[in-house]
Amino acid sequence: MEYCMKKKNFLIAFCGTLLALSMGTTMADSDDHRRGNHNDHHQSHPPKPYVIKHRIADQEREIRDGYRNGSLTKKEVRTLRYNIAKIKTEYQRAHDNDERISMRERERLDHMLDRNHRMIRKLENNRIERF
């Protein structure tokens, strides 16, 4: 009887640990966590396809907001939108070849999104103001 109770308690603790670990993995895959830890970029798994779609939408919103508030010029917006269009084309091409996007293709798309995100931040923070 005592053996059964120990086994039951062990299984409950083990399941709780698995649940906690699975929640931690989900957080590590989230876009917000990835943006904060650029040093862990190559050690973590690339984002899932839906994260790539969300990142594209976020960058489109940032570009639109940057243009509206005057921190991005028309030329900068045109370049950044061209980059987004190219990323979308690459994503669609990768998705059309196979229903699942390969790890290498996801890493490539993620790298392109990272570069474009850095460009947006750099351009927004380097604006020239009149005295």
Radius of gyration: 21 Å
Biggest sheet descriptor: none
Percent of residues in beta strands:
under 5%
Indicate the mean pLDDT: 76
Query: End-to-end distance, in Å?
Result: 82 Å
Counted by DSSP, the helix tally is: 5
> Helix proportion of residues, in percent?
over 70%
SSE blueprint and pairings:
Elements lengths: L1 H28 L1 H6 L12 H20 L5 H24 L5 H23 L6
Q: How would you portray this structure in words?
A:
The protein is mostly helical. The chain has a domain at 59-124. Helices cover 77% and strands 0% of the residues. The chain is built from 5 helices and no strands. It has helices spanning 2-29, 31-36, 49-68, 74-97, 103-125. α3 (49-68) packs antiparallel against α4 (74-97) and α4 (74-97) runs antiparallel to α5. It is elongated, with a radius of gyration of 21 Å.
How is this structure best summarized?
This protein has five helices and no strands.
Keywords:
mainly alpha; elongated; single chain
